[in-house]
Amino acid sequence: MGDSTSMPDCAILDEDALLDIIEDVWGDQTLPGSPLAYVAVPDEQLTTMGKNAITFSSTDQEQEPKPDKPKKKRRRDRNRPWHEIARLESESSELERELQTLMASASKRARGALHSRNINAQLKTMLKENIEDIRHLSNIYCIN
């Protein structure tokens, strides 16, 4: 009964047997991946290296991970890329030309309505600013 602690031999395969099984099953198939990862090696060198010898480029080798640096976030309101600035400038000049042509073709009544609308918008912003100033002063001087 001393044999009860040992495992049966049929359940455990040694490493060489496992590698032989893997070679039999997967030996005829190519490795998946990009064809750009393989270094071009003439067939003569492959036969001298061995039947299943495959060489890889240096990009496939594992590299040490670089420490992660926090990525700088650019302020969208300050630092726009030059191509975006050029696009916006050309867009604004086109829109200004379009506005001038529309204003020239507009009637006197339409231009007057637009002028009144602009004045009303300015007065509303001034009124909001004055109300905020009055609230701020009333909080400072405790006026109820």
UniProtKB/TrEMBL annotation:
Compositionally biased spans, kind Polar residues: 49-60
Basic residues compositional bias, start-end: 69-78
Residue span of region Disordered: 49-87
Protein name: Uncharacterized protein
